Every structure is written in structure tokens, then in C-alpha cells.
Amino acid sequence: MQKTIESQLTALNQLYKKQDTIYHNLALRFGLSDAAFWVLYAVYESDQTSSQYDLSNTWFYSKQTINSAVATLVKIGFVQLQKSTGARNRKVIVLTETGQAFCTKAVTPLMEAEYKAFAQFSKEEREQYLSVFQKMLDLLQIETQALGE
Asked: Is the pTM of this model over 0.70?
């Protein structure tokens, strides 16, 4: 049984890496880092404004990575930072016209591809996939909390 679990974990880790590579290669095609591409994706797909802090928490990147990605996106003119209403020091990330045009060209087709791929699962398969994936991450988080202490 141990050998089976070990080979399944190897296959799972390879699948994670393959997924990362798909997104990484797409970001590279558009001349962006993975983090910069995900910032654009997150801002573009969201109905709400997001701060760098929000993106760090919801997309599981370090604050430094998000800050660096946003700085790059500001520099190339894809986003700008605007003061948030209600929060003293918090600024929200807003797409510029150039950023919006880029997202229409790069992010929309990706979202459509993701939708088409996921829609090929039955409703039950989608629910099962999400449930099992979430359970694996929850259990892995529990099992790894004590590591490195």
C-alpha cells in the first residue's frame, strides 16, 4: 500500500507541476512573470476592487511578490493604484485602458479555455473534484504545520 500511495503522490505532484507550467508558459508568452499575470487575472475577473493585501491573502502570494508584480504592472501601464474609500492607507489596483485591452487579449481567452475544460466534466465530477482537492489541501496543511518548527 505504501508504494501505491508514494507513486500516486508522485503522479499528483507531477500534475501540479504540469498545471503550473501551463500557466507559466502562458504568462511568458505575454512577457510577464507568473505573479504579474495572476494579478491581472485576479483584478480583471473580480467584481470588487482589490488591494495588494487582498490579493496576497486570496491568491496565496507573499506581500513582497504581489508588491513587486504590481510595481511592474504600474511601470508598464497596465494598472494604477488608487486610494481606497474607507481605508486610510490602502490603495486598490485598477486596470488602465491599456491593461483592460491586454486582459481582453490575454486573460479572457484563458478564462474561456478554463471554462471549456471544466465544463467537460459532469456536474458531479466538478463537485467531486473540488471537494477532494479541498480535502487534500486541508489535510496537507494540517500535516505540514509542524514541519520546520
From this structure: yes
